[in-house]
Amino acid sequence: MNTYLSKRNRALLSELVRTDFKLRYQGSALGYAWSVLKPLLMFVILYVVFVYFLRIGKDVEHFPVYLLLGIVMWNFFTEMTIQSLSSILNRGDLIRKIKIPRWTIVFSSSISAVINLALSLVVVGIFMIINGVELTPYALLFPLNIFMLYILALGVSYFLAAAFVKFRDLNYIWDVVLQAGFYVTPIIYPITMVPSVTIQQVLLLNPIAMAIQDARFNLVTQTTVTTESLLSFAWTIIPIVITIGIFILGITYFKSQSSSFAENI
Amino acid sequence: MSEHKDIAISVKGINKSFKLPHERQNSLKSRLINFHKRSYNIQHALQDISFEIEKGEFFGIVGRNGSGKSTLLKLLAGIYTQDSGTIEVDGKLTPFIELGVGFNPELSGRDNVYLNGALLGFNRTEMNEMYSDIVEFAELDKFMDQKLKNYSSGMQVRLAFSIAIRASTDILVLDEVLAVGDEAFQRKCYDYFNKLKEEKKTVVLVSHDMSAVRRFCTRVAVVDRSEVKFIGDTDAAADIYRNLNLESTEDASKKTNKRRSLKTQNVSEGCKILGLRTIDEKSRKEKALFAPNEKLIIETSLKVAKDIEEVKLSISFNNPGGVALTALNKVIDEKSAGGSIAGKTIKIEWVVDGVFNDGKYLVTASASNVESGRDYSRSINGTEFNIVGWKDTDFILHTDYEVKIITD
């Protein structure tokens, strides 16, 4: 662990993240504000569509915040995995010409995503205050939900980044998977709208769904359904095992491939 | 223990090969369809390479294009991973395969310095200490807050080079590309190399150009066809490397000659030029490389039609620039051939004094009607040969001459 986070690697990571941020909103008038504006605008669209047109979520307490939190967390997952997927290939010039620990490249894009998430969570916080959401001690558990989502996203990111070097169709496939994931996960609809309880239970075994529902429970409203409340505490083991499994698989695959990145890019 | 202390880089028995797929299969679909049909060419880039570089040594690695020297460089730099064998490095190694790696045109000069520094392994505090030196050396004080894309290419190189100079560590691995640029920049590079030498840094210089290596390196490894052909002092290495280059020059010429020989133009009935080549005096085999003063032997073969009794054959020499240098003519008839030539295949050998200076020369042959001067057949630039080895290579010709000095 010491060698992983050596002074040199930390300096490299901070420089990569810094560059990433400087380049991200290069030339745009509003600059960093977009990090906040993007989830906000998407929220406005979804809110209008689902609350006014489709009239979903009437029976959910603080539905606007509930919806926003789900979108923010899902965006974090998609943004991080999409950025990471092409991160190794995009840094091909570095990998072929200089010796840097390859894992830092994916890790730095994950940090960028975390920073963006933090900015988005500020927006969530503001809406919580506006909506008069009362914080409970459960809020202390919220970082754990984010942590679980991060670990999952990191495992997926490492796997995708390494695999993309060899399989160049992966970005298209991943786009489709994410599209499907957006609807499979109870983000824009309350899970209780799904007609069959069995299907609800299956959907909640998805680690992302569990993280989002738990986060909503901890932060917004204790009336929401979670994996624990719909199944049982013991069942929460499954999403956790999936998360850890994907994390280990991703890291292992990345490690096994990383020595040949320079030749394959 | 004490013996081990002086070794900076120890390379033991490394092998490296690349799998080159016959057809690139980068998409999942082709992977799935051709799953069982995947075929590779294994290219052995390096085979059983071993050597040691001592601390404070200026070590050269020379080799022609495709010899494996760049692969070796990337292995030393830790960019590639060897298939087998070990590379031990004692100290902090910085590779410079290219200047300004990671430079981003959208970032300011200042940001690029810090980014480049971080990629080379320096943290912000270390870079802060170096920063003013770098800017001063690059003479870009006023431009540091401008985006790199607004720099001229010369300014970019200057900035990259200044970082490289400051960011030097115990062991440096330098690629030849460092010394590209105008003369002033090259001189700056060479000054830098000299400075490194004075400072007793361990330097590995990889190049295909012997002159730079000759100037700085104390010991040289010659890499050819994936193997280390020689390790030792610079002069001996230079000789070996020169011979390798000569071989390849001759091989290349022979190859083009083969293609050229098919291009004979038969303009009118009467005579056909069947062959045109330069040959070795003793072995009579094709030869495309001649030493200074060595006699050139040019062999032409001709198929004469049944109704033709005389033909004029001409040979002319051009340099690759298209300058016609000299021409030789001969009328071939019953008298000069010692018998009727009608319907026969004849060989004509021309022996020419070795007056040509170093370089490549093209030979054109033509057979024509003696009276009308009309060509029967011609082979334009039908063959080429090389001359290598003259000391004074400023002019095209080396003329034989005598000097008489007359005093009253």
Whole-number average pLDDT of chain B?
86
What integer is the average pLDDT of chain A?
91
What's the number of helices of chain A? 12
Largest sheet of chain B: 6 strands, mixed
CATH topology of the largest domain in chain B: Rossmann fold
Unreliable stretches covering 5 or more consecutive residues of chain A: none
Classified by CATH, the class of the largest domain in chain B is Alpha Beta
State the CATH architecture of the largest domain in chain B. 3-Layer(aba) Sandwich
Number of domains as seen in the coordinates of chain A: 1
Overall 3D shape of chain A: globular
Largest beta-sheet characterization of chain A: none
Distance between the amino and carboxyl termini of chain B: 78 Å
Number of strands of chain B: 18
Strand order of the largest sheet of chain B: 5-6-7-3-8-9
Strand content of chain A: under 5%
Rg over CA atoms of chain A:
19 Å
Order of helices and strands of chain A: HHHHHHHHHHHH
Order of helices and strands of chain B: HEHEEHEEHHHEHEHEEHEEEEEEHEEE
Can you put this structure into words, describing what you see?
The complex is a heterodimer of chains A (265) and B (408). Chain A is mainly α and 265 residues long. Chain A has one domain. In chain A, 72% of the residues lie in helices and 0% in strands. In chain A, helix 3 runs parallel beside helix 6 and helix 5 runs antiparallel to helix 6. The radius of gyration of chain A is 19 Å and the shape is globular. The model of chain A has no long low-confidence stretch (mean pLDDT 91). Chain B contains 10 helices and 18 strands. In chain B, the strands form 4 sheets. In chain B, strands 5-6-7-3-8-9 form a 6-stranded mixed beta sheet, sandwiched between helices. In chain B, strand 8 and strand 9 form a beta hairpin. Chain B is elongated and about 90 Å long. The interface between A and B is medium-sized, with 31 and 31 residues.
